[in-house]
Amino acid sequence: MDIGSVNYLPYEDFVDVFGNVVEKCPLITAAVWSRRPFSSLADLEASINDFIDALPESGKEGILRVHPDLTGRDLQSGTLTRESREEQVQAGLDTLTTAEVSRMARLNTEYKDHFGFPFVICARMNNKATILRQLEERLRNERTIERACAIDEVKKICHLRLQGLVVPETSNKL
Ligand SMILES: NC(=O)N[C@H]1NC(=O)NC1=O
């Protein structure tokens, strides 16, 4: 789909197509629809990011809280959204050894107990080794810094999901 077609989508279709660009947050998509027309894919993405940035800190934490844990176990259980499952598989999280699954589960719990929201990272820009390393390192962050870092990761995930849904303008001209 190109950006011109996006601008013609009725509200329901827009939410159907873009409702999960921010994991389990169709409300963001619904709100951003009223900012049409978008001049480009980057403009649509900027509208989503502006909406997120304008939220109070409790709203940002809410976005983080609905993210699934990155663990082998959730991947096996079949409860993830299609997007999240595909991203976790691409990062190799379906190939964790039993020891790695336990380590990730332990660190995830420690992280969540400490910050009150789950560890979020753009899986497709990482692999299982860098995800485990980041989880360990970010656990040591000060809370405000960590919340901002996690929201940046949400935006990276959203960026890649949007790329999969809208043809960038440069490709249109080919
Ligand atoms: N917890 C977490 O980071 N989950 C997200 N990361 C990602 O790339 N997809 C997700 O669902």
Automatic annotation (TrEMBL):
Which EC class heads this enzyme's classification? lyase
State the pathway, as annotated in the record.
Answer: Purine metabolism; urate degradation; (S)-allantoin from urate: step 3/3
A GO BP entry: purine nucleobase metabolic process
Query: Any idea which GO molecular function terms this record carries?
Result: 2-oxo-4-hydroxy-4-carboxy-5-ureidoimidazoline decarboxylase activity
Where are the coiled-coil regions? Answer: none
The record ties this protein, via SUPFAM superfamilies, to:
UraD-Like
Where would you find this protein in the cell? Answer: Peroxisome
Record's superkingdom?
Eukaryota
Main localization is other
Entries under InterPro entries matching the protein: OHCU_decarboxylase, OHCU_decarboxylase-1, OHCU_decarboxylase_sf
Please provide the record's keywords in A-Z order: Decarboxylase, Lyase, Peroxisome, Purine metabolism
Homology family: Belongs to the OHCU decarboxylase family.
Function per UniProt: Catalyzes the stereoselective decarboxylation of 2-oxo-4-hydroxy-4-carboxy-5-ureidoimidazoline (OHCU) to (S)-allantoin.
Task: Give the protein's recorded name.
Answer: 2-oxo-4-hydroxy-4-carboxy-5-ureidoimidazoline decarboxylase
Q: Origin organism of this chain? A: Oncorhynchus tshawytscha (Chinook salmon)
The encoding gene is: urad
